[in-house]
Write a structure and sequence with these properties.
By secondary structure, the protein is mostly beta strands. It has no helices and seven strands.
């Protein structure tokens, strides 16, 4: 198989209130996604801006009890019913 390279860059930035509540994502395939960020105790949710005729994306990071992180990327056509595109767990090791 030929080598596949996928480069991503996400910049999280402060909004006018000083909160880190916005992000923008870029990749080498020409995608760019503007996100609004919400937080809870163990979860960070990035939801893309609604643009006509473009899917809505949701990226969720959840801290699990064992210290691992669950990462889930979802898509929706209506912003209500999301379909999981990819999901996985990661854990920092020393």
């Amino acid at each position: 198989k030929p080598k596949v390279i996928h480069d991503d860059l996400m910049v999280v930035y402060l909004d006018f209130t000083g909160s880190a509540s916005k992000a923008i994502y870029f990749d080498n395939e020409g995608h760019n996604i503007n996100y609004t960020i919400t937080y809870s105790d163990k979860t960070i949710v990035l939801t893309s801006d609604k643009i006509p005729n473009v899917p809505i994306f949701r990226l969720t990071y959840t801290l699990l009890d064992n210290g691992a992180i669950n990462t889930k990327f979802e898509m929706s056509q209506d912003g209500e019913k999301f379909m999981t595109y990819i999901e996985g767990k990661s854990k920092k090791i020393k």
